[in-house]
Amino acid sequence: MQQELVNFLEGFASKKSIFVNKKVFQPSYKPTTILHRNDIIEQTAKILAPVLKLEKPSNLFIYGKTGTGKTLSIKDVTDGFSKLAASKNIPLKIIYINCKLKRVSDTEYRLIAQLSREFGKTIPATGLPTDEIYKIFFNVVEESEKAVILVLDEIDQLTKKTGSEVLYNLTRINEDLSKSFISLIGISNDLNFVDTLDPRVKSSLSEEELLFPPYNAFQIQDILTERSDLGFAKNTLDSGVIPKCAAYAAREHGDARRALELLRIAGELANRSSSKKVATRHVDEAEEKIDRDRILDAIRTQPKQAQAALFSIISTSVGKQNPIFTGAVYEFYKEICTKTGLRPLTQRRLSDIISELDMLGIITARVISKGRYGRTREIVAPKTLQTDAVRKILKDAINL
DNA sequence: GTCAATTCACATGAAAGAGACCACGGTCTAGTG
DNA sequence: CTAGACCGTGGTCTCTTTCATGTGAATTGACGA
């Protein structure tokens, strides 16, 4: 190892870290007190209360933007109920499922299979007819008298992919159950989600609704202060740091998760640059780094075809002032494919890939009409992507 | 000059196909007592 | 006789292709002033 590096590492090891407990900044960390959510937690608990008398509570629908404490608050409430039920011997089963998890619970089959697994059944990942799975699930619920509360986080992801069929079946399953019942709690980031639902599902799912408002800058400051007292060593934060993180996050619709991440990265950057304190400039750097990392990560994890498409986009737009269009990208893309031996996709598919890349925030693409000269997507690759480093990553990825 | 019709270059939708997984049940095979 | 290997069938899931339809404004061309 190079002497320089050794020196650095020695210095690094002997120096005191700014952090005393990094875990408190992780999204999975569960604080003992949840700030600024008391009233909502109380309401939720009241709605669910009948379950303790083995009466079916109303289905509950919860919405609010990301990082507004939805998941955290609900988990807090349900944990409370679980404990209470356990101490009073109430047969209550609370199942929390995140519908976004790929290959676990993002389709009808997988969701029901996952539910059955929660009851201790072993279900193959695929291979059985869907109604078979429903039967298994039904039987295991009906096996003994019990109350089931089903929390479906990111429920919008589920219906986006599979339609509202599943939800309809789940809300209706109570009609056939005699000993037990299932209450649904749906959580969604998408405020308009309910309106896109099938009306039958809509009315039964949202018997009760709760909205999690975004945190304002002061509330985020409270949260950050609380966490940093736990996570950072004493007197390692410049006074402006927390307000700045809070301000950034409040601007992005009050996302507390993001604020915490920002603070953590800023701390890490300060650590690495071996300064004794976290300064506001570290926050700026952190903001930039998060952005960059997110995009690079997204690029790296894309499937090959998408990478080839992105490479075509970047290559065609490099050195050009004007935005480029789908047709040009597709021409270039076909060339790339013949060069690399990749099977070229149809333009139809490429069009979808481009809009997917846009959704991921990697590029900007919007549909414009050029009148007589047709209708197409105007694609802009940000300057930060038009670097040799990015192109190299992509080139390697598609073996060019 | 005005206005509706036309036209371009794709976008967008729906449906269906291909191929990878997988479970299940039946048949065959080889090893065991 | 039996455990395990080996099909064939039928199911899900993801990624694509195929076919069909939609779309917004620049351009065109007819019309009237």
Would you write up a description of this structure?
With 400 residues, this protein is α/β, with parallel strands linked by helices. The protein has three domains: 174 residues, Rossmann fold (3-Layer(aba) Sandwich), CATH 3.40.50.300; 84 residues, Helicase, Ruva Protein, domain 3; 96 residues, Winged helix-like DNA-binding domain superfamily/Winged helix DNA-binding domain (Arc Repressor Mutant, subunit A, Orthogonal Bundle), CATH 1.10.10. The strands form two sheets. It has a five-stranded parallel β-sheet with strand order 2-3-4-1-5, with helices on both faces. Helix 13 crosses helix 14, helix 13 crosses helix 15 and helix 13 runs antiparallel to helix 16. It is globular and about 70 Å long. The mean pLDDT is 86. The protein binds a DNA duplex (33 and 33 nucleotides) through helix 15, strand 7 and strand 8.
Topology:
Layout: H1 3-14, H2 38-48, E1 60-64, H3 70-87, E2 92-98, H4 108-118, H5 130-142, E3 147-153, H6 155-162, H7 165-176, E4 181-188, H8 199-205, E5 208-212, H9 217-231, H10 241-251, H11 256-272, H12 280-301, H13 304-317, E6 324-325, H14 326-340, H15 347-359, E7 364-369, E8 375-380, H16 388-397
Parallel strand pairs: 1-4, 1-5, 2-3, 3-4
Antiparallel strand pairs: 6-8, 7-8
The structure holds a DNA duplex (33 and 33 nucleotides).
